[in-house]
Amino acid sequence: MTVLSDLPAPAATAAGPAGPEQHRTTRLGLLGPLRLCRQGTEIAVPAPKHRALLALLAINANRPVQVDRIIGELWQDREPKTARKTLQGYVWRLRTLLGPGALHTTGNGYELRAAADAIDAVRFGMLAERGRAELLAGRPEQAARLLRPALGLWRGPALADVPVAPGAYAYASRLEEERLTATEWLIEAELALGRHAEAVPVLRELVVGQPLREGLRAQLMLALFRSGRQAEALAEYGELRALLREEQGLDPGRAVSELQARILAGDAGLENG
């Protein structure tokens, strides 16, 4: 399954104001190492604390983030006495990098204002949800056309070069789960389109990284069965069951167990979903 990397930016939505005209060409990347681009030029953010602050503000784009929360995220339990003054210096530096009008002081906090299509994580979520809606409506081709570019936005683990902080860690973990879920949606669409053989190597690689994820394992079993590889499909179930029993003392869930039974019986109904 080819993953497309070029994404036509969708129109801004209620997720945030478009901001000044010059910021329509400012983009932030969270789906991988932190990335800041202005007018097509990537702007380096070399200092770890600057990256951590920019990430926190981007995660909460178009919402004020209180100074106390920022300090807690940046320094956690090692807050220096000069934290507030140091933070002001960080904010000044980010304003320089972002350009005028992007970073606002709001009461006792700061707010990064950005259009909905300016942050890759937001674009990913918008496209993925539209793809899911098409899948649920029985339109797998349209779903795949949305889910491929959504997943193509990823450049590596979310916030890969941002120092670990509670808020950023939780957000990155949620994004990674959404990435896996969107991947399952795309594979479901590909299987519905009859691309079983192409899906097998992709699914094998995914299962190596997520050996206990039953949804991926079930998709691999189905893709193998539809490719005429019934024995391999059953072997995948056996491996899943052994791993679950060893690590969690559990058996596979009902859905994947029923799939195993249908594959074992050579159920022709699985050929066409």
From TrEMBL:
| Positions of the DNA-binding region | 17-114
Q: Which residues form the OmpR/PhoB-type domain?
A: 17-114
Superkingdom of this protein's organism: Bacteria
Keywords assigned: DNA-binding, Transcription, Transcription regulation, Two-component regulatory system
Where along the chain is composition biased (Low complexity)? 8-20
Q: Where is this region: Disordered?
A: 1-23
Instruction: Please name the InterPro entries in this protein's record.
Output: AfsR-DnrI-RedD_regulator, BTAD, OmpR/PhoB-type_DNA-bd, Sig_transdc_resp-reg_C-effctor, TPR-like_helical_dom_sf, WH-like_DNA-bd_sf
PANTHER family annotated for this entry? TRANSCRIPTIONAL REGULATOR REDD, TRANSCRIPTIONAL REGULATOR REDD-RELATED
Instruction: Report the sequence similarity comment from the record.
Output: Belongs to the AfsR/DnrI/RedD regulatory family.
Q: What is this protein called?
A: OmpR/PhoB-type domain-containing protein
